[in-house]
Amino acid sequence: MSAQIDQVLAQAANDPDVMETQEWLDALEAVIEKEGPERAHYLMERMVDLARRRGAHIPFSSNTAYVNTIPADQGEHCPGNLEIEERLRSWMRWNAMAMVVKANRVDGDLGGHLSSFASLANMLGIGFNHFWHAPTEDHGGDLLYIQGHSSPGVYARAFLEGRLSEEQLLHFRREVDGKGLSSYPHPKLMPEFWQFPTVSMGLGPLMAIYQARFLKYLHARGIAKTDNRKVWAFCGDGEMDEPESMGAIGMAGREKLNNLVIVVNCNLQRLDGPVRGNSKIIQELESDFRGAGWNVVKVIWGSGWDELLAKDKDGILQKVMMETVDGEYQNYKAKDGAYVRKHFFGKHPKLLEMVSKMSDDDIWRLTRGGHDPHKIYAAFKVAQDSKDQPTVILAKSIKGYGFGKAGEARNTAHNTKKLDDEAIKAMRDRFQLPISDAELPNIPFFKPSDDTPEMQYLHERRKALGGYLPQRRPQADEKLTVPELSAFQAMLEPTAEGREISTTAAYSRVLTALLRDQSLGQRVVPIMVDESRTFGMEGLFRQIGIFSQVGQLYEPVDKDQVMYYREDKAGQILQEGINEAGGMSSWIAAATSYSTNNRIMIPFYTYYSMFGLQRIGDLAWAAGDMRARGFLIGGTAGRTTLNGEGLQHEDGHSHVFASAIPNCVPYDPTFAHEVAVIIHDGLRRMVANQEDVFYYITVMNENYAHPGIKAGQVDGILKGLYLLNEAGKENKLRVQLLGSGTILREVIAAADLLRDDWKVDADVWSAPSFTLLAREGQDVERWNMLHPADTAKKGHFEQSLEKSEGPIVVSTDYMRTYAEQVRAFVPKGRSYKVLGTDGYGRSDTRAKLREFFEVNRYFVTVAALKSLADEGKIDASVVKQAIAKYGIDPDKPNPVTQ
């Protein structure tokens, strides 16, 4: 008895009414044939809905069969010349291989990746030839997040297009001398080529989602026409394990981002081995994305399988396809046709009969959907035409496609970068490259003359789509006028007697003034992550509204309040909820809008500083790579300022993190006038001058009086140090006290204690940025080293303090490392003592926390006296008296260890 009869009997045994079942199935078949699958789907959904409403328990499944989503007879065929496109792809595969292998024959440690592009080449080819628009007057251009490890293939295409030279290809991963190509997509290193960085993995899909939403934002606010543009993001199936890859798919579905397409290259492998050896990554991802409201298109099987699937009337082939796990599929493509016949089709006699007239070579040529131009084109067309959903295309491919035994579908494929002569010859033969045996040892690049049909076709396809991609706009064409510093006059003046404000409030007032500016107001993008009320910024809700594509479909509960929660289709605020990674991704989209949209936007992302660079440091680094321009505002900053929140809320290290990003300009201001000067400088540099920098500014929620700006202080504020209060000359002893943020006020108080209690005059310096002081000092130090015969230069820190007297003492609300950056530039012969908040935070009053971390006025005073004693200017007993006078326990535990 055949297996088919066994299956039918088994089904019948569990069916109390076989005839009724068959009638329902026949009816469904008739609907599909006469009215189409859409009608059948509608009827089935109605029946399931009715059953559930009547109390039936029907388990939900977001999965479909393990076959292509688009039926063979319904997908649109690729209109291009596929023979020419295949030859072009073969040449690109060869040149990509030659580039990487040549590089590693020069230096075996350069590395490089071949297998990702090998599996992705057909998908990229279809996109470049038929879908992706370059920027023109009529089209803003599509945005491409290219799978990072496939960069060699993109370079190979640009080489054929004449956009890259052979010399550049020969310098792949050797870019120090300015001739080479970056390892992965890096706008910082190739500012006119790559649009976005997509390594480290996971950031590409996350940033793409928020980029697509930002295009909707620009269009809704009338700033740029973006309704005909698409964001395409390519990523690997292994990459989808990164939390960032999947973390925002719910937002994309909720916001109906029909301008977004994510293509997951499902070659079933990551670096070490299979992605899901014991299950199916495509089915898993389908469930995740479909459940999040996405249009899911699976491209699993190539056209060669269509005939077999058409013959599969009893569903045995589909059943075996579903039951076979990814580890087996990987193994099949690492072997040969005979192995596939035995181990795949051999799982059922009916399947062996189905392929009995096929040779082993015929079976081997049954390709996966990710390598079939027609299947890919059909999927891309569905994604292009999506009206109300984002689309994910799950395309099954073969890692290392074309490498044969050298690495195709093997666990080592990801790291394949060196091929022996035999493997290179096999690749040439497989892709029919016109390269002789004599030439093979040199692995020559192949580029035919421009008058060949293939090259003409290559250029014609890109001309039809507006030009070449990827390409990046380094500067915006538009010019915006930055207001004078006097526009923030209220923040430059002293606070009224008896009035106190925080630097957070000062920042809010500067932002409000900027929103009212005729030139820049509409370009400001306030970005919040559910902390607006914490920073006293909820007034912006009603003033400029919160962006929502559907407006406000409800009456807010606080409608009777002046500052009620208002959503609007043209709202200006991007409110991301409790979502720092999303807030940063929105900020990146706005901060790079000058490049992607030819529109200068000015994003202000305001967040708890503890949940900023520490939490999204990888995105901040990527922002630097993308040459982002904008303001990151770390609110409630400092280890002792947010006093009641405790260990995981108190930031004493964000400025240390910020110092690691070369194009991040960080400041820790104390006073309102400093905040205004710094923001104005950022506008000047980033908007007026279009410099590729971004600003990190920490602000605090502690209220106090502000002295206002004095003549000549602007330059010092921006350089990172200026003399705030110069002491009199009443006493013989003198010290220099430096501070930033709220701790500067403790430094000011310490100056009074030194004068009144110990007859020591203390000059007080405000140091808004030790990082900028250190960078300039290092730059000067380097110049002096390389110009030994010239007069040595001095940096701002050294110049400012060299004529002052006495030891230098610093106290900040950050780790000592922050202020230690400038130790090398302390004037010769001067002592330099740094106090800081090393260790974990904790809850208590601000006064107790500053005592605990030893950064308050009393410890500053003791540190100054100890420095004087070390220089022999006072007796050590004076220091001991101060310790006793201020009630300091000399044996208290080190806060770092507590």
Summary?
The chain is an alpha/beta fold and 898 residues long.
Going across the major beta sheet, what is the strand order? 9-6-10-11-13-12
Q: What structural class do the secondary elements suggest?
A: alpha/beta
Strand count = 18
Radius of gyration: 33 Å
Keywords: Oxidoreductase, Pyruvate, Thiamine pyrophosphate
Enzyme class: oxidoreductase
EC number: 1.2.4.1
Catalytic activity: N(6)-[(R)-lipoyl]-L-lysyl-[protein] + pyruvate + H(+) = N(6)-[(R)-S(8)-acetyldihydrolipoyl]-L-lysyl-[protein] + CO2
Describe the structure.
There is one protein chain. This protein has 898 residues and is of the alpha/beta class. 41% of the residues lie in helices and 9% in strands. It contains 36 helices and 18 strands. The radius of gyration is 33 Å and the shape is elongated. The model is unreliable at 1-10 (pLDDT under 50).
Supply the key terms.
898 residues; alpha/beta; 6-stranded parallel sheet; 5-stranded parallel sheet; 36 helices
How do the helices and strands line up, and which of them pair or pack?
Layout: H1 3-13, H2 18-35, H3 37-53, H4 82-106, H5 115-130, E1 143-145, H6 151-160, H7 166-170, H8 203-220, E2 231-236, H9 243-246, H10 249-254, E3 260-266, H11 281-291, E4 295-299, H12 306-311, H13 316-323, H14 326-333, H15 337-343, H16 349-354, H17 360-364, H18 373-384, E5 391-396, H19 421-430, H20 453-464, H21 489-492, H22 503-515, E6 524-528, H23 539-544, E7 546-547, E8 567-568, E9 574-575, H24 580-591, H25 593-596, E10 602-608, H26 613-625, E11 631-635, H27 654-658, E12 664-667, H28 672-688, E13 694-698, H29 714-719, E14 722-725, E15 733-739, H30 743-758, E16 760-766, H31 770-786, H32 796-801, E17 808-811, H33 816-820, E18 832-835, H34 846-852, H35 857-870, H36 876-885
Parallel strand pairs: 1-2, 2-3, 3-5, 4-5, 6-9, 6-10, 7-8, 10-11, 11-13, 12-13, 15-16, 15-17, 17-18
Antiparallel strand pairs: 14-16
Helix pairs in contact: 2-3, 4-5, 4-6, 4-20, 5-6, 5-18, 8-24, 22-28, 24-26, 30-35, 35-36
Pfam families: PDH_E1_M (PF17831), Transketolase_C_1 (PF22613), Transketolase_N (PF00456)
Cofactor: thiamine diphosphate
Keywords: Oxidoreductase, Pyruvate, Thiamine pyrophosphate
